[in-house]
Design a protein that fits this description.
Layout lengths: L1 H5 L1 H4 L3 H10 L1 E5 L4 E3 L7 E7 L2 E6 L5 E7 L4 E2 L1 H6 L6 E4 L3 E7 H10 L4 H22 L4 H10 L10 E3 L3 H8 L3 H13 L3 E4 L2 E4 L2 H9 L5
Antiparallel strand pairs: 1-8, 2-7, 3-6, 3-8, 4-5, 4-7, 9-11, 10-11
Amino acid sequence: MAVATSSGWFSTRSQHTRDRLSNIAKLHVFDAGQSIYRFGDPANGIFGLVSGSFEIMIPRADGMDITIYKADPGYWIGDLAQFSGETRLVSLVAAELTQVLHLPQPELVQLLAEDPRLYADFYELSHVNVALGLRLIANLAIAPSDARIAAHLAMHDKTRADGAYEVQLSQTKLAELVALSVPTVERVLRRLQKEGILELGYGRIRVIDRLALLGLIDGKREQ
């Protein structure tokens, strides 16, 4: 539970809430490419990412799945279907070997019946996830390709300071997430690396100059 309690929604809960949820949580391990749940599945509880990463996917009109977000440890999901009684609107897939905390539906329903005060915590989780979705949509409306890429990389910044941070993303996956062509993303990333803003590695992007990256988003940095 250490990672789950150090970042994200769970980390901001009261000790009472963390204790109650920890008592029903079950740890599962998923291999890369294994589905935690699929679009259209019935609700079966809420999931928190301990280690590894999630890919959140939605079906296009042609039936192909596209990744809209790659989540980092501390991320929780599953609240919408759980509390609406509807089916899953997204697919959740392990992007690598991934450890997941599961709050199973039967135990969660019983817990909330015993302690209705906990509903407020899950309302806040829904707020967090809706805010993330709106931010993803807003980022796709950014016209300059370098600013759009910078905005997405900034979403993974947990330093809240001027320090460097690393994003576990391939250039191909980043292109899918920001709805740009792979050559465009590769060209922008090479330029930003040359300018000392980031460093490229295999399946990862390390942001070195956080302030310069943020400057691309708000247009204050000279091009």
